[in-house]
Design goal:
alpha+beta; Beta-Lactamase; Heat Shock Protein 90; 2 domains; five-stranded mixed β-sheet; elongated
Amino acid sequence: MPNQSYENQSFRGELLHEINNFALDLALIDQTEETIQLICDRVRDITNAFYTALSIYNPEGNSTSIKQLSTTGTYFKTTKKRLKKKLTAFNIQLNDESLAALNIDSQDTFIGSYPLILGGLPKTVSSILDKMFNIGYTYGVSLNYGGKLLGTLLIGTHKGTEQIPHDILQIIANISSASLQKIETQVEVTQYQDDLKNLTKELVLSEENERKKTSEELDENVTFNLNLLNTLIQELDTSPESSDGELYNSIEKLLEQSIHNIRKHTFSLSPPVLHELGLEPSLEWLTDNISKETNISCVFKTDGTEKLIDAHIEVFLFQAVRGIIQNPLLNEKGNNIFVTSSTENQSIVIKLTVNFAIHLQEENQENNIFSQLGIFSIQERIKLLGGNLENHNTDDQQINIIFYTPMSINESTA
């Protein structure tokens, strides 16, 4: 920006417009490093400075450390390359006086470079820097948000450059402070979301492990005993001492039915196919069973691509799909169901298309059909896994439910 007078109203208007654009650009950035880099670079351009440095405050150690340094000039850039690593790791302890000054909204203006990095350089070094880089004003801008100290913005200009007005520094401080607070909040939210995703993973796997344990106990203990009894009855039935074959036949049929029911429940609790072969084979098994046991035609198709899916995500998707297609509403009013599996941008996409034998609008089912299928509960749980769910009516007799879920929890947080 041209070095014009801050007293010129036209120049001040252009400057404030540039500051406004700076604020808008910051609002569009989500990444922490890009935000800090943008603050340093844009403040340097706006103030016509030859360097800006952003230091972040560490409340535990009452200190600041250089987070970003932005410069112009070939000689200074060369020096920066040599010092950047040291500066980045350079912490400056704050005494009570310095901390009190920074904890209020203050913009201090100094002559020369001695206050650089909060007076962290010896005066002899500062005098050399002043001559080497022709340093004029050094500004220390306190960055506070809601009474909380976040850091300090340091601005250095050449000799002969007009002093930056207090109100301009205050506007820059307010914008920079809000951006630093946004970064801090984003880090906290991201950590919270990661914790929730890990908790959801643990809960899903814990639920499934309990089902699997119950299923195995039923199969190993109860089914084994019933099979043994069935064998004994068969032996008794062929024995000469048997005088009531009809009674034994009834007991045999009852035991066979009990064995069948227990196996059916064990598969319902925790299908072995899900743990042994994975999600897609288990969905195929599920849809085949729905077709055999109900009046609904249920078909599963896959795109055939290899899908390496985390175990807790497979469990969640299987439980969600099973809960929907086994819903009594579909058994009563559904006609046919199509389930497809595909991939999109490192996510697995499960799509359910349900055709009804009724007209949803005529039976006042159009608006609450998804509520009855438990979609809203599933939506909340899938968000915690980094995915999302879409649902809509294709027409008066068809609905679509689409799951978009990362195949690994690491991909959802990348």
